[in-house]
Design a protein that fits this description.
The chain contains 15 helices and 14 strands. With 448 residues, it is of the alpha/beta class. Helix 4 runs parallel beside helix 5, helix 9 crosses helix 11 and helix 14 packs antiparallel against helix 15.
Length: 448
């Protein structure tokens, strides 16, 4: 991990993003997609045998599998079960509030011309939940609950099978409580679960096979092969976004922990803890901090080393920090804001005095964590906001996963003949003629 001054930042811009999908990955995924398109289930089973821990004969699970896994979790780990219930409740309540912001309307834009919009959920959506080193139990909640709250008729969860042919039991348990925690309050008949992983799962869901239904939208995180499959199939299926390695940027001035003599050291320790929470994900993860003094920068670096000494995931975290860990010393607020907006982080933390004063100038981030108490880990798991967020600086143009990804905003037009209606027809005819589209003009003229 390096410490640099803010005016050196421009030379680091090429290192802002995590490792991008390379040509070799894309070529491999293109072959998988082509095979699934022509061979269907046969190809999916072949790739599952090659890449997953097993290749089950039947991809879809029995309807009782999630409930069985949940009952088992309640007995074996009631603390985790209660934590998942709390998180599901918060995510459902937040999603319901999001849904309320999308409204149908119709208004009379001119006498006799009624324009409007309708909000319609997609019919089928898939949520991908990775297995791998860290089964993302929480991603199940973050995907299923917004989809169900949006009103999707059929939600499909897909996750890689383990040696016994089933996904991680905690993922199955989370699927059960996600359905129970949805805005509907009861498990919908439309929730289906498939033991499928990798690029072959994305291809099967986007294209459809003999036993895997074709969906309208695919959402959820995954490895570089999953991300490449989503990118290559976008257009044939809707996606949330193409996720890259996770990242965090922490803006700090050492004052958020109070005014005591040890406040700077305490602030540095919290910054270090939050940087490591990102770094432990993956060697390509990016943990960065913007601090207002070299003293604070050195305190953070020391705190990181101290915490690494006892961290079970230290090997991964060290690799991440060596590749892209960075502490930037900013001269003033304007410089810090400019750098933050350029980085456009997935997670942006404000650990400063008067953190609210920064909000208006910060434009590019996936989620904003305001003040020392707003731990990013709460956003990851239990506060209710979604943790599936834009990476690789794509927060410049999009936000995180939510109810909106499962909704279509469509427009309507209704007309009653009159003077305003005739004026609009005349305008349409003139514009059509200017574009050289004679049939368009005649269509307008036939109604005048």
């Amino acid at each position: 991990m390096q410490i640099i001054d803010g005016d050196e930042f421009s030379s680091w811009r090429e290192n802002l993003s995590g490792k991008s999908s390379d040509a070799e990955v894309s070529a491999a995924v293109e072959k998988i997609i082509a095979a699934v398109q022509t061979e269907g289930d046969k190809a999916v089973r072949r790739f599952a045998a090659q890449f997953d821990k097993s290749s089950p004969e039947q991809f879809e699970l029995n309807a009782d599998a999630a409930r069985t896994a949940w009952d088992s979790l309640v007995k074996s780990d009631p603390g985790l079960a209660n934590a998942l219930k709390l998180a599901a409740d918060h995510i459902a309540r937040f999603s319901k509030e999001q849904k309320a912001q999308f409204k149908n309307f119709e208004f009379e834009i001119e006498p006799g011309i009624f324009t409007g919009q309708r909000i319609i959920p997609v019919q089928k959506a898939a949520i991908y939940a990775p297995g791998g080193r860290f089964p993302l139990i929480s991603s199940v909640l973050m995907g299923i609950i917004p989809a169900l709250t949006a009103g999707v008729e059929e939600v499909i969860l897909t996750s890689p099978p383990l040696e016994d042919g089933l996904p991680d039991r905690r993922i199955l348990a989370a699927a059960h409580i996600a359905a129970q925690g949805s805005a509907q309050g009861t498990a919908p008949k439309g929730l289906r679960i498939f033991a499928l992983g990798g690029a072959q799962a994305i291809a099967a869901l986007a294209l459809g096979t003999e036993t895997v239904p074709r969906v309208d939208v695919i959402a959820g995180p995954g490895n570089k092969y999953v991300a490449a499959a989503k990118r290559l199939l976008f257009g044939r299926v809707g996606i949330d976004f193409i996720a890259g390695p996770t990242d965090v940027l922490i803006i700090a001035d050492g004052n958020c922990a109070g005014d005591s003599a040890g406040s700077a050291a305490k602030a540095a320790d919290i910054i270090a803890a939050d940087m490591l929470a990102q770094a432990e994900h993956d060697p390509d993860a990016r943990a960065r901090a913007l601090v207002n003094s070299r003293e604070l920068a050195e305190l953070v670096a020391a705190a990181v080393e101290k915490r690494l000494a006892n961290l079970p995931t230290a090997e991964t975290a060290r690799a991440s920090l060596a590749r892209g860990g960075l502490i930037i010393i900013y001269k003033n607020k304007a410089e810090a804001v400019r750098i933050a907006n350029t980085i456009a982080p997935e997670h942006l933390e404000l650990q400063t005095a008067s953190a609210e004063d920064w909000i208006g100038e910060l434009k590019n981030y996936g989620s904003l964590f305001i003040g020392n108490e707003a731990a990013e880990v709460l956003g990851d798991y239990s506060a209710g906001i979604n943790h599936t967020l834009p990476t690789n600086a794509s927060a410049r143009f999009t936000g995180g996963l939510g109810v909106r990804h499962f909704l279509k905003t469509v427009t309507t037009l209704r007309c009653v003949p009159g003077a305003a209606y005739k004026t609009a027809l005349d305008a349409a005819e003139k514009i059509a003629l200017a574009e050289g589209l004679a049939a368009h003009a005649e269509s307008a003229r036939s109604r005048s």
